[in-house]
Amino acid sequence: MRTTVGIVGAGPAGLLLARLLHNAGIDSVVLESRDRAYVEQRQRAGILEQGTVDVLRAAGAGERMDREGLRHDGIELRFARRRHRVDFPALTGGRSVMVYAQTEVCKDLIALQLKEGGPLLFGAQALAVEGAGTDSPRVRFRHEEREDVLECDYVVGCDGSWGVARRAIPEELTRVFERTYPFGWLGILADVPPSHDELVYARHDRGFALLSMRSPVVSRLYLQVPEGTDAEAWSDAEIWDELERRFETDDGWRLRRGTITSKSVTPMRSQVQEPMRYGRLFLAGDAAHIVPPTGAKGLNLAVGDVVTFARALGHQRETGSDDLLDTYSETCLRRVWQAERFSYEMTTMLHRSPDATPFEDRIQLARLERLASARSAEQDLAEGYTGFAL
Predict the structure, then answer these.
(1) Distance CA 243, CA 229 (A)
(2) Which of 204, 289, 297, 351 is catalytic?
(3) CB 134: neighbour CB atoms within 10 A?
(4) pLDDT recorded at residue 370
(5) Phi then psi for 294, rounded to 5 degrees?
(6) pLDDT exceeding 90 applies to what percent of the chain?
């Protein structure tokens, strides 16, 4: 099997890249180790930055998003039993975000790929990326109980931090920067309308809490819990009681309760691998970088990576110049590190460390007071949250 671009991984990054390449007249093959049902049900991100929304629309993948997604023009910060709303359009010249789950983005892109695009092979386990440093890279994979090889001009690894793509870059050429946080998120899905019409980020002495949603009738909520927590150790009643404590305000706001349909714990870490390119192998999304979910940056960073690659390959096709391909890693990493900074600042401002001192608690509150009283600080948060330029 041969193609121009071999794409390893059919998450939102790989699927969107296949769509962008198809629209540019460039052929690709997507290899995904899981089955279609798993990809379409895998719960991940739910916030799309303005730039991501614009890219999906331009790619022809925005129809259902625009019909069913929830546009949000701000978020609410809670601390010291007070509420403060950050107005995105007023602070960013009109930008907003969209609540539309990653599962739905994948469903839309899969349907388009199967209808109009190149091969999308589910149950195709990539075994190795070979020859990345040559002009003829290839992906060795197993599909339908037989081993095969995908010959490519380029390989883009969208297969996450545990995938084979990143391991194809010689270890002596890479640097990994990371931080692991001593807490995680206990996340639930609940059949209950959201208790607020925008996301609520709450800093509390007992730990962070987040009120989000997946639709007008399904709520997504999170609690900061100690690292290594077992989700099943929390009863449904205990979860709702703790959420209520952490969201409590002095104005009588109430949390709606409902049936919890799923719960899981997400570990929190930051990680960047440099470079994001080796020869004709390009890393995108979680294969190159991880952010804690506090800043809602993971999916959006992946979109930025594949937009950068598609633009660079299109430029090469039009001009014969490899300039943009050669600077792919540097271009992506500028945006990646800004997103890492933003996610780190949101995480450390809102989560209480297990060994936090009274001084550190006061610093957190001072940072939140600054956001609530200074337009410049509020504007920096709004610009970071709605997204960096693609």
Answers:
(1) 16
(2) 297
(3) 10
(4) 97
(5) -55, -40
(6) 96
CB neighbour list of residue 169: distance below 8 Å, 6 or more residues apart: 132, 273, 275, 278, 281, 283
Concerning whether 385 is annotated as a catalytic residue, the answer is yes
What does each C-alpha distance from 162 to 145, 165, 173, 342 come to in angstroms? 22, 9, 18, 24
Q: Is 278 part of the annotated catalytic residue set?
A: no
**Active-site entry in 12, 194, 292, 293:** 293
- Tell me phi and psi for residue 145, to 5 degrees: 65, 20
- Got the DSSP string for 282-300? EE-GGGTEE--GGG--HHH
- Give the residue among 167, 164, 258, 248 at the shortest CA–CA distance from 206: 248
Task: Report the relative pairing of strands 277-278 and 70-72 from DSSP bridges.
Answer: unpaired
Closest CA to 40 of 98, 118, 102: 102
CA–CA gap between residue 33 and residue 127 (Å, rounded): 10
pLDDT bucket at 337, cuts 50 / 70 / 90: very high
Which structure tokens are listed for 83? 């509420």
204 is catalytic: no
User: Could you say which of 100, 154, 278, 385 is catalytic?
Assistant: 385
Tokens representing residue 171 in the block: 């270890």
Indicate if the pLDDT at residue 375 is higher than 80.
yes
- 328 is a catalytic site residue: no
**Over the stretch 341-358, which tens digit does the pLDDT of each residue have?**
999 999 999 999 999 999
Active site residue 263: no
Give per-residue pLDDT as tens, 48-58.
999 999 999 99
* Residues 7, 17: Cα–Cα separation, whole Å: 8
User: 57 — phi, psi (to 5°)?
Assistant: -60, -50
Choice among 201, 222, 278, 328 that is catalytic: 201
Residue in 22, 72, 204, 289 annotated catalytic: 72
Asked whether residue 389 carries a pLDDT value surpassing 80, the answer given is no
- What are the DSSP calls for 6-60, one per residue? EEE--SHHHHHHHHHHHHTT--EEEEESS-HHHHHH-----EE-HHHHHHHHHTT
Number of residues written out for the chain: 390
- 130, 41 contact by CB (below 8 A): no
Please give the order of strands across the beta sheet that includes 259-274. Answer: 82-87, 74-79, 199-202, 209-215, 218-226, 175-191, 259-274, 289-290
